[in-house]
């Protein structure tokens, strides 16, 4: 039987090849695709609102009589139509208009229009409202319906999409949409069939509960939301299956490398570190590729855990790759690991994008021959020219943006190209539980939920930049007492060039004002060697004060630094600030973090900085960040398409996450269902979080 998936949109009236091409940009090829092109909100045009009751930002229908119509010359020529009803008046402003519009909208005309209220010179205005002259009577309240608003692409207007969707709906009687969810399940949650749900969201019946629809809580919408979340969950489980369809080299814990390593450490592992290690040890000894995410707050000691995992692989005669997101961090790991592992007779190689020429050739040769047992670097590690001899474990540090595609691609890098390497992913960005369940369904998770003993809390203060002088004094004082400090410059611009410039200016200013301190500068535009040199001198205590851009955000570890100033913290996310703050509080002495904001601070901004001041619990902060900014920002994947839902909204729909996670594994065995749901909701080109 034909299904809507097989009916091309060109079958619809008015869809030629040009329009079909545009629709394709929205991922719409079949009539079914069109039906799953869902409205993301509704406009309530069901009733006329008195002009006098409008507020800025309202989107509303008003109706009245034209008092006068003027051509205003100003900076931009516009047509200004003043509309009046019994309660007040409103200006309709058109920047593009023709003579006939001007005639239609002349004095005395009766006009109904729909627009968004903006502040104007003499009162409220609508810019380019949709309007009708001499409108028909409004339908009675019980027959009025909401107007759906669709995602658009260039060259397709809202009314066009609306009418196409209406046409598509007319196919539903003959070709209902296949329902892949078990009927018992729908009954349990009192949800409508897929066909009914789709029909309703495109064309809400008169009398359907407006507030539920406006908020996305109508059962029809919730049915779709649940299916969408389920499809995402299934796609992640499928990735996991695809990776684990390969075998991995079982890495049995043998030899005394781990014991010798632990003996030389100046501290004992925390209980949490031991606990996580036992998860990892267990995973690594299986012939199934490990897929494990280790979450641990800043300073919880993830690096030692990474080293122990590496030692298990090395002890079993295999190679390990450790990848970090930035040169600085990779370099720091390289130094750390050399200090720890070389005394045990282990050979390391360093591969980053900036290692070139002969040095690179030599490093690659050592990796290919297996002479290097541990390879450390940036993502340059996984370029095509890097060949491993016996890679069995990949450790990815601080890279929660490491997407599903990368995880899939790693399959190919293992021993003989057929054994998949084990994967260990570390992140210090605590991910709220619900988000982790949804975004990392393909990974097992362990949490290092304990900090090493003796850590002092970091005292955080929120200070206006009008008191910058005082803060500079404070830096002087701390450094005189033998401490070190960070001064972090931030810019709202993503442009790295501007960020670096700002840091240069600040560095010059502070060097000038603090002549008895040794001041260093590090930013993303320095050469790797220069950066490394600056970091090294700061680490050695040759520099007192380090001016930096947010490049030092993750991982940098200098225990003697006890003061961090963060400029314009209101521009950064809470999780990022928490990361930055975590650069201090790593040693014995009391530490301070100064959030130096630029007033005025919005009330939301104030609340956020206060949350940071009052808490040092990364998970709590991450929950707050999620509430305030949404999952895309928290995961750092806003631009990447990961966790971009058509309908689902993380906050509103978090109640579904647990049930969806419970039902997904049971469905995995039904491969047709899985394929169909993934295709329906994620399309052909599955949009995972690639970076
Ligand atoms: P993160 O989890 O942020 O990557 P690191 O691995 O950089 O943290 O560890 C932070 C600091 O804590 C390092 O100086 C590290 O040597 C130290 N450390 C790690 N584990 C312990 C422990 N069990 N006891 C004391 N200090 C530890
Ligand atoms: Mg770290």
Automatic annotation (TrEMBL):
Keywords: ATP-binding, DNA damage, DNA recombination, DNA repair, DNA-binding, Helicase, Hydrolase, Isomerase, Nucleotide-binding. Residues 481-627 form the Helicase C-terminal domain. Residues 283-448 form the Helicase ATP-binding domain. One of its GO terms (molecular function) is hydrolase activity. The keyword Transmembrane does not apply. GO terms for biological process: DNA recombination; DNA repair. Its EC number is 5.6.2.4. It catalyses: ATP + H2O = ADP + phosphate + H(+); Couples ATP hydrolysis with the unwinding of duplex DNA by translocating in the 3'-5' direction. Pfam families: DEAD, Helicase_C, RecG_dom3_C, RecG_wedge. It comes from the Bacteria. It is an enzyme of class 5 (isomerase). InterPro entries: ATP-dep_DNA_helicase_RecG, DEAD/DEAH_box_helicase_dom, Helicase_ATP-bd, Helicase_C-like, NA-bd_OB-fold, P-loop_NTPase, RecG/Mfd, RecG_dom3_C. The keyword NADP does not apply. NCBIfam families: PRK10917.1-1, PRK10917.1-3, PRK10917.1-4, PRK10917.2-2, recG. Plays a critical role in recombination and DNA repair. Helps process Holliday junction intermediates to mature products by catalyzing branch migration. Has replication fork regression activity, unwinds stalled or blocked replication forks to make a HJ that can be resolved. Has a DNA unwinding activity characteristic of a DNA helicase with 3'-5' polarity. Belongs to the helicase family. RecG subfamily. This is ATP-dependent DNA helicase RecG. The lineage of its organism: Bacteria, Pseudomonadati, Pseudomonadota, Gammaproteobacteria, Pseudomonadales.
